[in-house]
Specification:
single chain; TIM Barrel; 8-stranded parallel barrel; two-stranded antiparallel sheet; 46% helix; globular
Length: 310
């Protein structure tokens, strides 16, 4: 699947993934009111509004970007109806030809890790028939439990030709409380990055590994270091836009071939209509505002890469 992701990045010219992270505060009122009228002012109503909200955004940006990244927690908070909305969102995105990165951040060991991997990337066999859970193309994985937590995902990826992105240096301000701690004089995130690169050598696509890394846009210097440590690792970069990252911060995440990174923006795109810059679109035209935000992001990244000669 890493080969397919790179193919789509090249086709769109946009190393961008749109984070589909809906909350009640972001969903336009007209979508909520319509869903509440039909399903009730309850989790079922919210779930239906989420599906419609996501479909509008996907329709607006599917020709511009290679991938989307739904964050499962935003759906889980509404219980089973929310998980159904998550599944429907994934199915719709795949119908539109988008690569789906399930932002699930799972981290456990043994049969539990394997069950997570199967549920999101693989299949179960019941009565001689195969059934799939959520069918993401990639999933995010927390490596805190070490190889015991990651290798079950890798085995499913090997079988299904799917991929993972392993948390290495995250974009949040307190990430350094653990990730920057020194071990033999080196920060922990460097050691994790080296391990990710080693895991990846055992699961290679044409030029990049099926084992990717998550490195926040808010830490460009760390990104530069990790890029060198993980030359054949694709880096998923959260933190653009709403968390403060911008195109000029992203140059070091890319290799000299202009590949190697895909940049995520969530609220900056799906809630663009709430920003002053895009306020003229209005709430009803939230999808048009999202499309313009993607176009602006694409230009910002391209200008930064051009200036760096990548």
């Amino acid at each position: 699947m890493i080969n397919e992701l790179i193919k789509k990045i090249k086709k769109t010219g946009a190393p961008i993934v749109v984070g589909l992270d809906p909350t009640l505060k972001l969903i336009p009122k007209h979508l909520l009111e319509k869903a509440y009228k039909e399903y009730g002012e309850n989790p079922e109503g919210v779930a239906q509004a989420i599906v419609e909200y996501n479909r509008g955004i996907v329709d607006a940006v599917a020709d511009l970007v290679p991938a989307v990244k739904p964050q499962i927690a935003m759906y889980e908070q509404f219980g089973i109806p929310g998980l159904i909305a998550y599944q429907k969102t994934i199915q719709y995105c795949k119908e539109k030809g988008l690569v789906v990165i399930g932002d699930i951040k799972r981290g456990d060991i043994g049969s539990t890790s394997e069950a997570y991997a199967v549920g999101h990337l693989g299949k179960v066999t019941i009565g001689g028939a195969d059934y799939r859970g959520f069918e993401e193309d990639f999933a995010t994985v927390n490596p805190y439990l070490g190889s015991d937590g990651v290798k079950p995902f890798m085995e499913v990826c090997r079988q299904e030709k799917r991929g993972i992105f392993v948390l290495v240096k995250t974009s949040n301000p307190s990430s350094g409380e653990f990730q920057d701690q020194k071990i033999d004089g080196r920060p922990l995130y460097e050691l994790v990055g080296e391990k990710v690169a080693a895991w990846g050598e055992d699961l290679m696509g044409d030029g990049y590994s099926y084992v990717g890394a998550v490195v926040g846009a808010t830490y460009p210097e760390e990104g530069r270091i990790l890029r060198k440590l993980m030359p054949r690792t694709y880096i998923l970069v959260p933190g653009y836009g709403a968390q403060g990252g911008k195109g000029a911060d992203l140059v070091h995440f890319f290799n000299e071939d202009g590949l190697g990174a895909i940049i995520n923006s969530s609220r900056g795109i799906i809630a663009a209509y709430q920003q002053e810059k895009y306020a003229a679109y209005g709430e009803e035209n939230y999808a048009d505002a999202a499309r313009q935000a993607v176009l602006d992001m694409k230009t910002d990244i391209k200008d930064a890469l051009d200036a760096a000669g990548k």
